[in-house]
């Protein structure tokens, strides 16, 4: 679908790629190297502090739970759904991460989205730059994300399913998708994917609510007006110094939950709760990786953990992933849920506005801030800290 008719950008991209292939042995020239590395060139800004670098081998996580969601779609008895909710609850408590199969997202929908993703990142730099993100219009292409003030070895494309009519926290920021020209089928493939993922996100939200003994639709209201959910395409080119740089530095996702699709290269590492070790999340065909975000941690009053994770890169293979960040609405106030606090269990966080929190975090991506980026720890009640 993407090669039927070639735009000037696509034609140039193909010609550059074939030059690149026929000169495979000459890859040491700077120009060819830069093409192979998605335009990124290694410099000091990518170098992690020694204690945050990835080891050459990271052990594969054996314990991250794999949950089959098919009881949700096969009309199984309520008891089967309850059992599923209990599994989701245990995984969220013990790991903050789990894999799901039987999720109901059609394989063709995923295949179309991944083909669109590869076609986009294969475009020449100037075509990607034409849809580049800016602080005033923060959706689109970007190749200079920083996590905790160190540059990530990746390029991204950000978009939303529902374009908000007003910015999440006032001001002049414009949240409009930027669609690349001359990439037939790109928009349709990603819109189809986002729609399927939204459906899955609400199913997971319901399971999480059930697992906390809440009404199944207890959390739905937080997602009603002006959703801030966004979807990202990630491309991690081969990196000449995987011992120094990371694809994404260590972080926690701030939203309610993240649904990630990854290819078969591997590189997502999660910090294991039991011993603090970094372990690699395995690649399971046709699965999604789910992680509980900071918002769910606050709602659950720390019953569930938003686990720290990062992406290691390698010098041989590029990697693609697609996180769908399921975030509350801009007007949501986030605080421990009333049903989960009481005299014996005081709320561990002060209430905060999701819209303000989110837009402050977002602006941290553009500037090297002097302070650590905004974290939910800032809302942790001081007298309850260990
Ligand atoms: O690419 C991945 O595996 C994870 C990316 C990630 O953690 C993020 O974008 O927040
Ligand atoms: Fe993440």
UniProtKB/TrEMBL annotation:
Any one GO molecular function term: oxidoreductase activity
Pfam families given in the database record: 2OG-FeII_Oxy, DIOX_N
The protein's required cofactors: L-ascorbate
Fe2OG dioxygenase domain boundaries: 226-328
The organism's place on the tree of life at top rank: Eukaryota
Signal peptide span: none
InterPro entries referenced in this protein's UniProt entry, alphabetically: DIOX_N, IPNS-like_FE2OG_OXY, IPNS-like_sf, Iron_ascorbate_oxido_reductase, Oxoglu/Fe-dep_dioxygenase_dom
Keywords for the protein's UniProt record, in alphabetical order: Iron, Metal-binding, Oxidoreductase
Name the record gives this protein: Fe2OG dioxygenase domain-containing protein
Lineage of the organism: Eukaryota, Viridiplantae, Streptophyta, Embryophyta, Tracheophyta
């Amino acid at each position: 679908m993407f090669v039927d008719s070639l735009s000037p950008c696509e034609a140039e991209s193909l010609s550059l790629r074939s030059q690149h292939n026929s000169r495979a042995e000459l890859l040491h020239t700077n120009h060819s190297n830069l093409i192979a590395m998605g335009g990124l060139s290694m410099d000091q800004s990518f170098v992690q502090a020694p204690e945050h670098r990835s080891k050459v081998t990271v052990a594969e996580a054996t314990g991250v739970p794999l949950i089959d969601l098919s009881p949700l779609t096969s009309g199984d008895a309520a008891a089967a759904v309850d059992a599923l909710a209990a599994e989701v609850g245990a995984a969220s408590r013990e790991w903050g991460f789990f894999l799901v199969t039987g999720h109901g997202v059609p394989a063709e929908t995923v295949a179309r989205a991944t083909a669109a993703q590869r076609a986009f990142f294969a475009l020449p730099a100037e075509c990607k730059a034409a849809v580049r993100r800016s602080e005033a219009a923060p959706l689109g292409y970007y190749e200079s994300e920083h996590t905790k003030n160190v540059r990530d070895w990746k390029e991204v494309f950000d978009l939303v399913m529902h374009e908000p009519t007003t910015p999440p926290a006032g001001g002049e920021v414009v949240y409009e998708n930027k669609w690349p020209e001359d990439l037939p089928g790109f928009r349709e493939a990603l819109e189809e994917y986002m729609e399927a993922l939204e459906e899955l996100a609400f199913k997971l939200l319901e399971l999480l609510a059930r697992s906390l003994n809440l009404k199944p639709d207890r959390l739905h209201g937080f997602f009603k007006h002006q959703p801030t959910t966004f979807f990202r395409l990630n491309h991690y080119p081969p990196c000449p110094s995987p011992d120094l740089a990371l694809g994404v530095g260590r972080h926690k996702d701030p939203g309610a939950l993240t649904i990630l699709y990854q290819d078969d290269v591997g590189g997502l590492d999660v910090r294991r709760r039991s011993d603090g070790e970094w372990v690699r999340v395995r690649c399971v065909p046709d699965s999604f990786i789910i992680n509980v975000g900071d918002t769910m941690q606050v709602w659950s009053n720390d019953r569930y953990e938003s686990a720290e994770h990062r992406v290691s890169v390698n010098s041989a293979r590029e990697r693609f992933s697609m996180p769908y960040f399921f975030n509350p609405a801009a007007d949501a106030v986030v605080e421990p849920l009333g049903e989960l606090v009481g005299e014996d269990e005081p709320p561990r966080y002060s209430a905060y506005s999701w819209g303000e929190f989110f837009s402050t975090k977002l602006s941290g991506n553009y500037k090297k801030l002097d302070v650590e980026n905004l974290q939910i720890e800032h809302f942790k009640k001081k007298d309850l800290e260990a």
